Each structure stands twice: as C-alpha cells, then as structure tokens.
Amino acid sequence: MKYGIAPSARTDRTQEIATPGQSRRSRLSYGLVARSAYVFALSFALFGPCMAAEHLITLTAEETAHDDGLGNKLLAYKMVEHKVDGVDITSRYSSAATIPGPTIFLTEGDIAHLTIENDIPGAHDNPPHVGISSQVSIHVHGVHYQIDSDGTLKVINRVADEGAGVGPDDGDVLVYPYTWNVAPGTAGTWAYHDHNYITHNGAEQKGLFGAIIVNPASAPQYDKEYLLYVTDDAFWGMEIDGTSKAQTKHGVNPSLSAARGDNVRFHLISLGTDIHEFTLDGYRWADPGTTNLINRTAIGPLEKHVFEVNANHSAKYRDKNFTNNLMGMRGEFNVE
Ligand SMILES: [Cu+2]
Asked: How much distance in Å is there from the Cα of 204 to the middle of ligand 1?
C-alpha cells in the first residue's frame, strides 16, 4: 500500500502569526500578556490538555512458530519494548511475534521513534541474490515523517533502502530507525506493513502488517477495542482491553468478547484486493462522519471503517459476500 510520500512535518507550531488589524501602539500595550495568552491558547488547541508524549519502540520481524499448513513459514512483527515518556508499557503486548502485528496507540502531537531488527532465521546467513532484498521495514500510513523513515526500497522512493537488512547487498544496516511525527490532524486508524522483504511490495501477505490508532488528545475511553483486518480470505484480528490495555486473541477469525453494556469500538482495515460486505448480526451503528445508522458496510482495498456499538447481545461478525462467506469469513462476538 504505497500512496506516495507523506509530507514532512512542520515542527515550528508556535510561529507568530501577523495581526494586521492592530496598530503598533495597541500591540505594545498588550505586551507580554497577550503574547503568552496567545501561545498558551494555541498550544492548548493543538495539543489539548495532555502533553505530547515521546514513544521509544523496538520491534523485530521474525518467523512464526508454525507454518501455514503447506510448509510455508509466516512472518510476524514482535514488540520488544515500548516506552512512553520513559514508562515501560511492553507488558501490554504479546511476548511472541503475532499476526496481526502489535497495535500501537498514539495521540495527536506525539513523536514516535522506532527501530526494527531483522530476526528472520537464515536471513543473516544467506545474503540475498543481487536485486532481491532481505530487508524488513515498517512503512506506515497516516502520520508524518521525513523521507528516510518511509520504510521502502530505493526503487520506490529514489532515496535509499529503509529497512533492516542482512548483508552487503542490503546495505549492512542490521537495525533501522524510523521517526513518526504524529501531527495534529492525523487522528485515525492506519495500517503499517513491511515494504522491503523479497520484493518492493514487501511481505504483508506473509503476516508483516499491523496498525496504529491515533487518538485525538481528548479521546473517549472504550471498554474494548477490536481490530479486524479484512484480507481476501479471512479476518485477522486482535482484541484490546480498555482497562488493562492488554492485546490478545490475535489470529484468524478470532472470537471477540465483551461484557453486557460495554462500549466497544471496531476498527475494520481492508488489506488485499477483494471487496467485502461486513455485518455484525443485529447491531446498528453510525456510519462514520454521519448520524445515519447502518447494519452493514461495503469495504474495499485500503479502506477503513471505524465504528462503535454498545454490547448487548452475542452475534456473529461476517462477510456477507457469497464467496467470502463460503471461505468462512466470520467469527464470534460473545457478550456475557
Ligand atoms: Cu501501504
């Protein structure tokens, strides 16, 4: 999923803005009070009541323990460490590499520094053939970054390869750093994925994908959050507890759980190439950006659909498209 290059962030957010209506005399009489009130109001408007946080994130890309049943190994990201302003929150994540990869929660105004290490077995011992990349990368959507944090191969962005490689043909970069500027205006649910492994499209289809959820500074709290990645033949999901923030129940067509009365948020993220028709039996929700209540949504490549429901009965989530339904694209939403 390569849309092009994200604009680099503007870092000077407190730049003074000209006030043409004011005379020099009145500006002087306002003096420092007006200036500091203005700067305070501006920073409050941009960052909200919370201070922007700094995230230090270390990820690896690894093989999963099991193959796909046909002898093909899958690949997965693992969260090794995540600190927010020095506070270690790594225990929220699985200690194993997971598909989908870790869900990274960020808030508008934050800065995230990430590194990725290539721990795919054999990659270091078997340098790739010339022209075939064994780098792994993280290419993210939605937030801002400089071009060297694009997480793609040089053949794509014409700058440099931006992943963790394995040998001379991969630039000898064993750990690659990225910086994401979670600028105001980037709130939303966004996919990240590898863009470098073996081909310039990366190994998303082998499992190297995940998501960031960027909340506005004053976001509501949810009792549960569910990520459902809609691929061509399955939902890949993850459940996140709103209190403990623990990330569990990842995998294919997961059974999700909630308590009666829970306020829950679903994040559908469409990967792959197919068109799907998502429904959650017996539930209606507001179509994002409107007050229209809907009970199904069409979702196609690269689209997202984020909605909230109040958990009041157990139901199945499913893809109602005939062939996708035949493939078993459905799972349980258990409310107790
Ligand atoms: Cu993409």
From this structure: 9
